[in-house]
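Q: What structure does this chain adopt?
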Amino acid sequence: MLEDKILKLLEDVKYEGILQGEIVKKLRASKSRVSEILKILENQGVIVRNVEVGKSYRVWLARYYPYGDRLRLGILKSTEYSMVISAVDADFIVYENAIDLTRDLIMNRVDVAASPLITQVLFGIMMKNIRIFDVVAENGSGIVFGEGKGLFGTSEMSAMEINLKAVRNEIPIRQIEYYSSPEKMIENLSRLEGIAIWEPYISMIENEKIYFKEIIGDTPCCTIAANEIAIKKKDDKINELLDKLKKCRIDFKKVSNILGFNEKLVRDSVKSYNFNPDYSLDEVVKYLKRGGIDLSRESLVKLFENL
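A:
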C-alpha cells in the first residue's frame, strides 16, 4: 500500500523530514494521491507538515518533529524502562544502542533520554549540554554463556561493558567484542564464551547464565537526562515525568506495545530490576571506578542535577 511506503520513507528520514514533492518523486506516485494520504495521516496525528519555501511542505512522522510541544523521549529496547514508559504520555523513540540514543539527546533530536549511566556521563562531560536527574533502575543484566573461549560480547559505552570489566577477577575474560544491538550479540553467541546482556533478552535465552548481581551486588543500569534546550522549553513536562516516575505503576500493556515484547515476558523480566533506587554522587563515582573509569566527584557535580 502507498500509505505503508510513505510511512517507511518518513521513518527512514527521521528528524530531517522530507519535502512532500520528494515523496511523490521517490515513490513514483501521483501528487493527488500522496496529498490525500498525508492529509489523512495529519488529521490522525501520525505526521506533521510545515510550510517551508513558497507552498512546499516538509513532512515528518510526529515523533520526529523537532518543533512540537510534546515530549520526545528516547529509550532502549529494554524492560528497565518500563516505569519511564508508564509514567507519561510522550512520543517514545526506541533505539538499538546507547551511543546513538545519547548522541541524539546531545543534538536535541530527543528532549529526554533514559540510557545507561556511563553513556550519559561520558557524553555529558564532553559536550556539557545535558543534565542527569535520577537513576531509573538497577540490576537486570548478566552474562549468558556460549560455546567459545575467552571472547565476550557486549555493547560499547554501556552498563554491560562496565559490569563485564568489574567481574574480570571472577570470570576469565580475555577479550571483549562490541555489538551495535542485542540481536547481533545473540546471533554470535555460539562463537563467544558469553555475552553481557540485559532484560528481557537474558530471560529469553535458554543457555546457562549468571546475573551480575550475584557476583558484584547491586549496580545502577540507567539514568534519565535532558538536554539544556528541552530544560528551558519543556521544563514543566520534564518535571511532570520526574514526579510521576516515582509514583506510577507499570502499565504492562503499554510497555509491551512500545517495546514489542509480549506482556508475559515484560511481567517476568521486570522482576530482575529494582526501580527508582537511591544513589549518592559518591556511589556513582565508586561504581564508575570499579569499571575502570576514574572520575572525580568534582567533575560530576554540575552534570548531576539531584544526586
